[in-house]
Amino acid sequence: DVSTRWNSTYKLLLSTFEYKELLCGFFGQVVQSSSLYLFSNQWNICCEILKVFSDATDQLSGVYYPTCHLVVTHLCNVACIFCEHLNSNEPPLIECIISMKTKWEKYFLNIPEIFLCAIVLDPRLKLDGLGELLTLYFDSLNPITDTCHSSSIILSSVRHSLTEIYTEYNAKYGSQVATQTQHTTSSIITSRLTKAQNLIRDRTKRPRGSSSSNLELENYLTTTFDFSTTDDEDTFDILRWWAQKKQVYPILSLMAKEILAYPVSTVAVEQAFSM
């Protein structure tokens, strides 16, 4: 085994789990120092901790579904498992967890904003859900980091970034989307209008430029969507949801599709977790 390959350690322990009692008994007789081998209960705790990393690796390594909006949830799972077992009565494991957590914070204490924006574009969570996840994440890390992170400041920054991105998309695609929508909904009756009526109609429905207000974004953020009759969380298709909302949010749906397609990492997630 390699000390920095956490997923490899998990697979090693899992593959020998059925021989756990036998191995613990053997090493308990041969090895004098208890710090060099795992007791039965420690074996279980190690598997429970390392499983969180393995699950994150499996899901975030997916290529046939978006993963960008899943990152923060997995970060919270890791932070929670650290916090839970720091209060255990196993000194060797606590020392190990502190070491793992120190390495973790080096890379994941400051979450890239693209992942935060992706959470907001998940209609089940949006800004309120992101705020709850951030509070959970930093509260779980706080016992050993003593770092105070203001969720409200981060949320304000994320909202500002989304507004700027939306403004750019609206400036680039707004006229095109509005023209397509106008043509689709009125192609039948247009032929029946006089030239004067067409002129008035075109002027009153002329697409607005990038200076227009972010009505789509604000409408999305303030609208409560009902997911009580939808499938469970594991089968929710976020890209299909945005495709179905294309007529309501033409600019935002395009923006969401491209942000959600952002890759979690340019290297394998297994390598990203090998610190």
UniProtKB/TrEMBL annotation:
Classification via PANTHER family: BED FINGER-RELATED (PTHR23272), ZINC FINGER BED DOMAIN-CONTAINING PROTEIN RICESLEEPER 1-LIKE (PTHR23272:SF161)
UniProt domain HAT C-terminal dimerisation: residue ranges: 216-274
Protein name, as recorded: Zinc finger BED domain-containing protein RICESLEEPER 2-like
GO MF, any single term: protein dimerization activity
Start and end residues of each hAT-like transposase RNase-H fold domain: 62-169
Organism (species): Dorcoceras hygrometricum
InterPro entries with a match to the protein in the record: hAT-like_transposase_RNase-H (IPR025525), HATC_C_dom (IPR008906), RNaseH-like_sf (IPR012337)
Pfam families assigned to the protein according to its UniProt record, in alphabetical order: Dimer_Tnp_hAT, hAT-like_RNase-H
